[in-house]
Amino acid sequence: MSAQTVDLLSFEETLEKYDPALGLEVHVELSTLTKMFCGCPTEFGAEPNTQVCPTCLGLPGAMPVVNRKAVEGAIRIGLALNCQIADWCRFARKNYFYPDMPKNFQTSQYDEPIAFEGWMDVALEGEDGEPETFRVVIERAHMEEDTGKTLHVGGATGRIHGADYSLVDYNRAGIPLIEIVTKPIRGAGERAPEVAKAYVAQLRELIVALGVSDARMDQGSIRADVNLSLAPRGSNVLGTRTETKNVNSLRSVERAVRYEMRRHAAVLSSGGSILQETRHWHEDTGITTSGREKSDAEDYRYFPEPDLVPVAPSREWVEELRGTLPENPTQKRARLQAEWGFSDLEMRDTVGAGALLLIERTVAAGTAPQAARKWWLGEMARRANETGTEIDALGVTPEQVAAVQALVDAGTLNDKLARQVFDGLLAGEGTPDEIVAARGLAIVSDEGALSAAVDHAIAANPDVADKIRDGKVAAAGALIGAVMKEMRGQADAARVRELILEKLA
Amino acid sequence: MPEITRDEVAHLATLARIDLSDAELDHLAPQLSVILDSVASISEVASADVPPTSHPLPLTNVFREDVVVPGLTAEQALAGAPESEQQRFSVPRILGDEQ
Amino acid sequence: MSAATSTDWTRRTAAEMADALAAGEVTSVELTQAHLDRIAEVDGDAAAGVHAFLHVDAEGALAQARASDERRAAGEPRGTLDGVPIAVKDVLATEGLPTTCGSKILEGWVPPYDATVVRRIREAGLPILGKTNMDEFAMGSSTEHSAYGPTRNPWDLDRIPGGSGGGSAAAVAAFEAPLALGTDTGGSIRQPGAVTGTVGVKPTYGGISRYGLVALANSLDQVGPVTRTVLDSALLHEVVGGHDPLDSTSVDQPLPSFVEAARQGAGKDLTGVTVGVISELRGEGWQPGVLARFDEAVERMVAAGAEVVEVSCPSFVHALAAYYLILPAEASSNLAKFDAMRYGLRVLPEGVDAPSAEEVMRATRDAGFGDEVKRRIILGTYALSSGYYDAYYGQAQKVRTLISRDFEAAFGQVDVLLSPTAPTTAFRLGEKLDDPLAMYLNDLATIPANLAGVPGLSVPCGLAEEDGLPVGLQVLAPALADDRLYRVGAAVEALLTEEWGGALLDRAPELKGAAQ
Question: Which residues of chain B neighbour A294 with C-beta distances below 8 Å?
């Protein structure tokens, strides 16, 4: 894709002139064993077209039957989002032609969603550092099915544009999706990008806690579309809306909102008008590009799916499902903060980094809360930032972090060596123990070797040694550095210091 | 009397992905108008308080359990495909975006 | 010559064949071969003969017949009809056998799975003779809209056999098969039954699985039996009917015994049965000879003890309009899957270099669908379009409610409703081909049952005086009371057969050498 230069207004100027209205549509792929309407497995990464049947391939004559577990997942998500659960609702057909959709209609819900009118209080950091919540109102959560996956062959980039032809795998077609749609979010102002990110992060946390999806943004099992429009400051009249697709990391949600706000503002303030269209987010370049224009030609001709009967959840069933809901996220955060002894600031950073569940699991695997926090918000956050991914998509699990910290606690590793173990983990070199062995990373506890290295350092730095003998203990640092260098870092710095001071006493 | 114009038929044919020829368009527009005229009376038949019937029998809550059932092999799935490659359905280049 | 003593096995009823198999008088291989011979003699092709079949599977049928004979020899027949051959409408998916729905767009497609009803007849041991002709995707009332050429009426090869299931009805009427499966969306089993002098049943919606039936209009379609006698329909209905977890709209209730009801009806006693004649389904536009035969049949029923009342169903006059909105709407969506991407025909547009998927879809759908299919897809697309939905599709769904209310009110007074099945006898091939509206009127009497989901049966009630062609009498019952159809249908059949001194089809031409 050629680089496009688009005028952007500065964020500050954007906010001086306009108020943003945000809308988020999040698709969650449920982790049911089987698809929405047939008994095909849903496992990620299977050989192409091996998890298909007449129904999800759209073969003539095949018919759908609703997966009870998927309905339960939808109801539980709805309840967790404080929604009403419909007494009676139907599936509908959304008709449009596209090769990744076997029937050329998507079986979805239209004007009768299973869950509607809910809300979520999103935790933000207040200006004075105090925690603050922003209420996001949920319009609906409805059930639908996923499409197949397409590989584009030929052309320069492997992208759809310019490809010679495409190859379709329908393993994903028919996997249950829950689409969660917010009402327009007004009044967030400069915090709109932050609200968007925090909403998706918190929603993700909720979905994982419900156990209805693994909610992996990197695998597409949770996907966000960002709708944005601007109203002139002080006006209630919303401008034209764009829908940005493919926003597949938390960081990108924030960046995409910020980008679209600035782009809209630049277009509007120069007298232009915004096209109602879908836009594509490009993770690498941090920009959106024009996709499909929404037009009259797009007439989905919805009508009730005649092959499925209405879903009418009894109130008993709904209450039974309400009883299975996990702890409310706000209460859970308060409990964990108390248990872990984190400060407000530490807790906010943890939540903001999307690390709450990771730390919880790390602590559960035996690591002290502060040590867990240090790894995830320090080392892992740095690595994620460098590679432009999320910390939970790095490929390091909480259990691995706990195993590494256990080696540090045992004195086998220091922090510097531990970082090399993470290099090994990311390179797929095996378990932390195997990596320590294979890379020879363990701290040298052989007193003879250590003592010899200290002697070398003293001999090589007579001036420094004299200063220490004169009582300038602070100078020991230079000698410690020299010893660590000789030991390639595999020494316990505290023990080295002790040895130096002993020898020069 | 409702009438479908030739342009409307062309638009509907685009929505329905049928490449109607000029002759077909000429032929279809008046035919459809006649048919529509004969069904037009329907808009006055039922009053607002009559509920629509989408399903002839009043069944609800028909579900299957979340249990894997054997499906087709890739070979069976692809047996009828006009073209396939790399165990996938090969389709001509796609112009529009995903929805 | 009485059918039961004929040496020609094809002239027997399915029940008689089943008895003969059970008594060891005949083998399934002999029965199957006799029908394959009859097919070879009369069926022909698009140019000549009955042309009821699109595909004959002689090898497969004989293999299934041999397996049936082995089971019987081992004392393990699977059921009454084990070994009795059957024909299957080409709209039902058959694993390993081509399934085209009478359309070019599916030419050569061989499904990798069986429709539930097909699985059930296989499991019950009925050898499948082949797939029968039909209007393309079941859109039509004459079988002239088949992409593979029309089926001809065994009573007069210049006439239509009804539609869309003209192939199944003609196969049974021409003694090419004792049994067939059909599908009925607005009359596609009953109207062909009427014009070919055979019996056809559209069961209660949900009574027989639709899984594997290539949908025309999902909320109207039903699979049903096509036979020469009411008892045979009941026997077949019991084989294929009942709950199917693969069809969400399938009714999960025990079936009443249809066979028992048919046997009861054959006793010709209708004492205590109240029948209603629908006043809206007669009058102008109805062929006098059709009405005359119908009225005579009703008189016979009265003589047999039935009480007859006239019943008004005022909303039925809107049924045709509602049907021709609901059907195209659902069909336009159902037929979207035929897009040249995964199976079936793929046509590349002419003069286009490296065509796109969309261009290939458009070219394929233009080349692969016939005129009637395109007409209804466009109509359905229109009816569902935003801006028209409420006025057309939404309104049609309300009319559906009104029609159901008419049925409810009527069945509050009577046990079954009666009408002629079709307004006319078989018309000539080509006569109404260019007049869609005239064609649609054939289904006037059959459509209300589909809109309301209630069951209906057509049974022969004689030959019209004007043209000597068969007339059908339609029996309608409340939802899930299909047994009433069999009781009343069998009674009408027994009363009239007695009067005629034999089955109506004994009077049909013999068709010897018709294939040439």
Answer: none
Per-residue tokens: C357:
């998927």
Q: What does the alpha-carbon distance between residue C463 and residue C466 come to, in Å, rounded to a whole number?
A: 9
Element holding A466 (H helix, E strand):
helix A462-469
CA distances from C45 to A16, C92, C98, C511 (A): 79, 21, 17, 14
Q: Are residues A268 and A401 in the same domain?
A: no
**Residue A484: which CATH number?**
1.10.10
**Residue A284 shares a structural domain with residue A420:** no
Is A6 inside any structural domain?
no
Please indicate whether, in this complex, the C-beta atoms of A68 and B63 are within 8 angstroms of each other: yes
Provide the β-strand partners of residue C417: C276, C476
- Identify the sign of the CA torsion B39, B43, B47, B49: positive
Domain boundaries of chain C, sorted by first residue: 9-316+401-507
Looking at A294, A320, A346, the residue that finishes a domain is A320
Residue ranges of domains in chain B: 6-44
Is C279 one of the annotated active-site residues of the chain?
no
Which of residues 19 through 48 in chain B touch C, CB cutoff 8 A?
19-21, 24, 28, 31-32, 34-36, 38-43, 45-46
| Cβ contact A171:A53 at 8 Å | no
For the segment C316-358, what is each residue's pLDDT rounded down to a tens digit? 999 999 999 999 999 999 999 999 999 999 999 999 999 999 9
47-76 of A, contacting C, C-beta below 8 A: 54, 57-66
Residue C14, H or E segment: helix C14-22
pLDDT at A17: 94
Identify whether C104 is a catalytic site residue.
Answer: no
Domain, as residue range, for A407: 327-439
- Any B CB within 8 A of A176 CB: no
C337 and A103: CB-CB below 8 Å? yes
The label of the residue with tokens 């309104």 reads C395
Q: Is the distance from CB of C230 to CB of C263 less than 8 angstroms?
A: no
A290: left (phi over 0), alpha (psi -120 to 50) or beta: beta
* Helix A415-426 and helix A398-409, axial crossing angle in degrees, nearest 10: 150
Superfamily of domain covering C9-316+401-507? Amidase signature (AS) domain (3.90.1300.10)
User: Half-sphere exposure of A224 toward its Cβ, with a 13 Å CA cutoff?
Assistant: 32
Terminal-to-terminal C-alpha distance of chain B: 36
In the block, residue with structure tokens 């569940």? A357
Q: Answer yes or no: do A473 and A373 share one domain.
A: no
Query: Would strands A242-247 and A277-282 be described as parallel, antiparallel, or unpaired?
Result: parallel
Average pLDDT of chain C is: 96
Name all chains with 3 or more CB-CB pairs below 8 Å to chain B. Answer: A, C
Q: Are residues A294 and A344 in the same domain?
A: no
Q: Which of C28, C68, C89, C103 is catalytic?
A: C89
Is A3 inside a domain boundary?
Answer: no
H/E stretch holding A122 reads strand A115-125
Across the interface, which of A65, A104, A303 has its CB nearest the CB of C248? A65
Do A350 and A393 have their domain in common?
Answer: yes
**Domain-located, residue A24:** yes
- Rounded to whole angstroms, the Cα distance separating A306 from C381 reads 16
The structural domain count of chain A equals: 3
Sheet of strand B88-92: strand arrangement: A149-153, A165-169, B88-92, B84-85
Q: What is the ipTM of this complex?
A: 0.96
| Crossing angle of helices A447-460 and A493-503, rounded to 10° | 60
Q: Could you tell me where the beta strands, DSSP code E, fall in A146-241?
A: 149-153, 165-169, 176-182, 222-232
pLDDT of residue B2: 66
A125-171 per-position pLDDT tens digit: 777 767 788 999 999 999 999 999 999 998 766 667 778 999 999 99
Whether C434 contacts chain B with CB within 8 A: no
Of all residues in chain A, the one with the smallest CA distance to C329 is A303
User: For this structure, is C209 an active site residue?
Assistant: no
